């Protein structure tokens, strides 16, 4: 004989007493909240409809945030469902342009996991944070594009300047945005980097070359995105939020590279001590803000 009351015994009075407890359990500790650029609470499904109408969607992540990686996978799945076969492309900062053949082979299912991970220079958190996305792409036959500049070239620029690339042979320059590269040091993201380095940027110091290296990555990703986008497709691009926040970085280079206006939507993951409203400092950073708790666990 059970010591717990049966559903018939519970009756309406028991249910009324339980409902507040259920509500408290489910809603008091949300894992994230979604806001528009202006700080209004946003609906996920409405956001998704808008994303599906865009040419390019930038998902600006915090690289060690598990909530961001889970949502990237959900957005990819939902966009694939809304767009249909052949209409979604996945672009990733996490892979460099010279490993594109390996990325394409893996997405097509012709390269084993072990060979791919050994040869493609994946990030240390690949297995937990990005492998599920590539497996989904392989399952759904979604094209995957490695968009980033090979890190060896960015390191050359950071140590010297963009002129360090002048001597590269043509086959290596093909991995980069067309040179010479124009850098707008007045972009908000680059000005923020300059503030971090202080006077180091004022007279062409080390901070200025690091911004040039950042610009090389941004321009190369924009160049690759533009040339990987087909008619009627949406390209979902995963990158660190600093590459697309404030609609600069990659977004600025993409718009400068395009002869016709592209429909661009940006998401950015930010952390806050409270999730009830969007902090003033996060207003207008992106079209949609994904706010996660400051004490969210990290993947590394």
UniProtKB/TrEMBL annotation:
Pfam families xrefs: Cofac_haem_bdg
Domain Haem-binding uptake Tiki superfamily ChaN: 47-254
UniProt cross-references to CDD domains, sorted A to Z: ChanN-like
Keyword Lipoprotein: yes
Superkingdom of origin: Bacteria
Keyword Lipoprotein on entry: yes
Keyword entries, A-Z: Lipoprotein
Protein name per the record: ChaN family lipoprotein
Organism taxonomic ancestry: Bacteria, Pseudomonadati, Bacteroidota, Cytophagia, Cytophagales
């Amino acid at each position: 004989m059970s010591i717990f009351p049966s559903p018939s015994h519970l009756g309406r009075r028991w249910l009324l007493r339980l409902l507040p407890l259920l509500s408290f359990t489910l809603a008091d500790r949300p894992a994230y909240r979604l806001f528009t650029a202006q700080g209004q609470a946003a609906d996920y499904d409405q956001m998704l409809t808008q994303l599906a109408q865009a040419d390019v969607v930038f998902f600006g992540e915090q690289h060690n945030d598990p909530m961001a990686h889970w949502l990237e996978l959900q957005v990819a799945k939902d966009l694939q469902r809304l767009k249909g076969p052949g209409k979604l492309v996945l672009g990733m900062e996490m892979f460099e342009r010279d490993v594109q053949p390996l990325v394409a082979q893996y997405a097509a299912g012709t390269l084993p996991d072990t060979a791919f991970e050994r040869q493609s220079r994946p990030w240390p958190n690949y297995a937990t944070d990005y492998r599920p996305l590539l497996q989904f792409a392989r399952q759904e036959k979604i094209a995957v594009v490695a968009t980033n500049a090979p890190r060896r070239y960015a390191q050359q620029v950071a140590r010297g300047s963009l002129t360090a690339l002048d001597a590269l042979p043509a086959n290596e320059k093909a991995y980069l945005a067309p040179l010479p590269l124009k850098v707008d040091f007045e972009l908000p993201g680059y000005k923020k980097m300059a503030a971090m380095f202080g006077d180091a940027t004022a007279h062409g110091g080390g901070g200025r070359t690091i911004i040039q290296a950042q610009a090389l990555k941004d321009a190369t990703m924009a160049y690759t995105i533009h040339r990987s986008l087909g008619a009627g497709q949406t390209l979902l691009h995963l990158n660190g939020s600093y590459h697309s926040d404030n609609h600069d970085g990659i977004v600025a280079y993409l718009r400068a590279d395009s002869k016709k206006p592209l429909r661009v939507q940006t998401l950015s993951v930010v952390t806050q001590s409270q999730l009830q409203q969007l902090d003033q400092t996060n207003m207008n950073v992106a079209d949609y803000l994904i706010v996660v708790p400051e004490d969210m666990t990290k993947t590394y």
